[in-house]
Amino acid sequence: MVAWGAVADAVMEAGGKVIGVIPEKLKNVKIAHQQLSRKALMVEYADGFIAFPGGSGALEEWFEVFTWAQLGYHNKPCALLNINNYYTSILSLFDHMIEQGFIKSAYKDLIVMDNNSKELVKKLKDYKSTYIHKWQ
Question: What is the rounded CA–CA span in Å between residue 127 and residue 48?
Answer without folding.
Answer: 9
